[in-house]
Specification:
Structural class of chain A: alpha/beta
Strand content of chain A: 25-35%
Strand order of the largest sheet of chain B: 11-10-9-12-8-1-6-7-13
Order of helices and strands of chain B: EEEEEHEHEHEHEEEEHEEEH
Radius of gyration of chain B: 21 Å
Number of helices of chain B: 6
Structural class of chain B: alpha/beta
Distance between the termini of chain B: 54 Å
Helix content of chain B: 25-40%
Largest interface: A-B, 93 and 81 residues
Largest sheet of chain B: 9 strands, mixed
Oligomer: heterodimer
Radius of gyration of chain A: 21 Å
Number of strands of chain A: 18
Distance between the termini of chain A: 47 Å
Shape of chain B: globular
Shape of chain A: elongated
Bound molecules: flavin-adenine dinucleotide
Chain lengths: 320, 248
């Protein structure tokens, strides 16, 4: 009856979001008076999970699972749930988990709430808070099915260290055939991806042209940040579509979002509302972004950004 | 090829979001409803298949009579027929079951849904629908080619993209990238006139068991005042981000 959490890893190492979902699972398990079981797929060392409240690991090692496949992964988690008699499953909100969760939900005959930002506000009925209307509101949803699946939004719950004893068990589920076969994969270089980044530096049409992106990249590099852009910038082909942030682009839930030469149109803001601290640099004091941001500089990006890079370098040198 | 495009009827992106009835219902007052942006990309891709490869394209929505203008717009863009399943669904699971009933009955080869709708953003309907149907499924689909019963699809993933090979019957959760924004179809006068003659069939729902239900809505806390930093004193921003916001 333990709470089951699927902890995602990449090349054998847990993603930060795995530890966040484990933290969330521990909270739910405490509320329910039970323990946490994690399913890991091809993770090398699972010991870190004990710091985040995981009591038991079902360790799956299988080279047929080396590349993500939603159907197969959903099947593995289904078998783990059946084995454990699970009533509550916790997943992250990564693209992969959001891909497999609806499949899992049909397999387990379970209600699924995605984009959940807080621990359950009630157990009877089981009620969770989720974002709605592209982050412009929250919705409290009750899950009424016997088995429940919760998809936790990135960076919404946080990491909570909570040391417990951990046992590990090898788990060898049967791997089904899948009708979807990977042909090739194209990772956007080794740069930090928008989804994983703690800090995102984003540029808009105010930067005038792709030739001016050097300073955005330099700022991102100093901060260890990912680069992003507004929609017209990707539509104009100045930057790849994968960097386009907003309602029709990618959502960003970083700790810090720096918007440079971006007006702050509602569709752009919809994609960044979940970011914690927002900084705007814009030469128009009337730009709507000034109403949405926490910190702002009214000024010409071409003057402000180079100075900011310089100051950050000094700061880094002092705090190294 | 028989294609079904799922059309979600959602508030226009610039809508003010308010709630009524003790914060239990979305306030539709003064709100304009549109085809969900992710579904628009899918509909245009379906029209491409129709024009280039020969396909029939139906559109479908699960909703009350108020969604019919949105379906008519899809017909004006070029879909052949529309279906409305007459119920106000409580969650994505219910939508998926109702859609699956129609797909099974009519035998569609390809179902194009949007990655997510911009009202509830659940992102669950396409995957659930595929699994109920036992069809192949590609989420966050940004490219799709079909030849015979073989399909090649590109999906956006965290930090990159993946190209997959699969086969029909197929369900995709589509998004921008399926077609370029500049290629999005908009209804012209002729399309609007023709749409009036096209069938819009109303189907009664099967009313499955409900898994999740909305309890209430809440608006985010109003944001505090912005702290402005002088453009000549950029160092102050670094200080604030370090000491106050604690993000660097
Ligand atoms: C259905 C729909 C969906 C959409 N989805 C998205 C989305 O997902 N993401 C998105 O971003 N947009 C989206 N949009 C578009 C959105 O409405 C805006 O058009 C877009 O965000 C504007 O981008 P921008 O701020 O870069 O450009 P602009 O609106 O051109 O603003 C540029 C800003 O740069 C400032 N600037 C100019 N020069 C300088 C300088 N030298 N230094 C500093 N600042 C300067 C200007 O003052 C201005 O505020 C969508 C629109 C629709 C209709």
């Amino acid at each position: 009856m333990s709470v089951l959490v699927y902890t995602e890893s990449d090349k054998g190492t847990f993603k930060k979001i795995a530890l966040e979902t484990a933290s969330y699972a521990k909270t739910v398990a405490d509320q329910l008076g039970t323990t946490v079981t994690a399913v890991t797929i091809n993770a090398d060392d699972t010991s870190v999970l004990k710091n985040y409240g995981v009591n038991k690991v079902l360790k799956v090692s299988n080279k047929d699972l080396d590349t993500f496949n939603a159907q197969r992964y959903a099947d593995v988690i289904t078998q783990a749930c059946n084995k454990e008699g699970t009533k509550v499953v916790i997943l992250s909100s990564s693209a992969d988990s959001k891909y497999l969760a609806p499949i899992l939900s049909v397999k387990l005959n379970a209600g699924y709430a995605s984009n959940v930002v807080d621990a359950p506000s009630s157990l009877e009925p089981f009620t969770v808070k989720r974002t709605a209307f592209t982050n412009k509101a929250f919705n409290f949803s009750k899950i009424e099915s016997d088995v429940k699946i919760v998809g936790v939004s990135k960076n919404s719950y946080g990491l909570y260290e909570n040391s417990v004893e951990l046992t590990e068990e090898d788990f060898s589920p049967s791997i089904p055939e899948s009708g979807v076969h990977q042909k090739s994969i194209n990772k956007s270089s080794d740069k930090v991806s928008i989804a994983d980044a703690e800090i995102v530096v984003s540029g808009g049409r105010g930067l005038k042209g792709p030739e001016n992106w050097g300073m955005i990249e330099e700022l991102a590099e100093v901060l260890g940040a990912a680069t992003a852009c507004s929609k017209p910038v990707s539509d104009l082909g100045w930057r790849p579509h994968s960097e386009h942030v907003g309602q029709t682009g990618k959502p960003v839930a970083s700790n810090l979002y720096i918007a440079i030469g971006i007006s702050g149109a509602i569709q752009h803001l919809a994609g960044i509302n979940a970011s914690k601290v927002k900084v705007v640099i814009n030469n128009d004091p009337e730009a709507p972004f000034f109403k949405a941001a926490d910190y702002g500089i009214v000024g010409d990006a071409f003057e402000v950004v180079p100075k900011l890079i310089e100051k950050l370098k000094e700061f880094k040198a002092q705090n190294a | 090829m028989k294609i079904l495009v799922c059309i979600s009827h959602v508030p226009d992106t610039t809508s003010k979001i308010n709630f009524t009835n003790d914060n239990t219902e979305f306030d539709k007052n003064g709100v304009q409803f549109v085809i969900n942006p992710n579904d628009e990309f899918g509909l245009t891709r379906a029209m491409w298949f129709k024009e280039k490869q020969g396909a029939s394209v139906d559109v479908i929505n699960v909703g009350g009579a108020e969604t019919e203008p949105t379906l008519r717009k899809a017909l004006a863009i070029g879909a052949d027929a529309a279906i409305r399943i007459n119920t106000n669904p409580k969650d994505g699971h219910q939508v998926a079951i109702e859609l699956a009933n129609v797909v099974k009955e009519n035998g569609y080869d390809l179902v194009i849904a949007g990655r997510e709708s911009i009202d509830y953003n659940g992102g669950m309907v396409p995957g659930m629908l595929a699994e109920i149907l036992g069809a192949n499924f590609v989420a966050n689909c940004i490219g799709l080619e079909v030849e015979g019963d073989k399909a090649t699809a590109v999906r956006e993933m965290d930090g990159g993209k993946e190209t997959v090979e699969t086969s029909l019957p197929l369900v995709i959760g589509g998004q921008k990238g399926l077609v370029e924004e500049k290629d999005l179809k908009i209804p012209n006068m002729r399309g609007i006139m023709m749409a009036r003659q096209k069938p819009l069939n109303v189907v009664e729902p099967s009313n499955p068991e409900i898994f999740t239900d909305s309890v209430k809505f809440e608006k985010p806390e109003p944001k505090g005042e912005i702290t402005l930093v002088d453009a000549d004193n950029v160092g102050r921003l670094v200080e604030l981000l370090h000491n106050e916001a604690k993000v660097i």
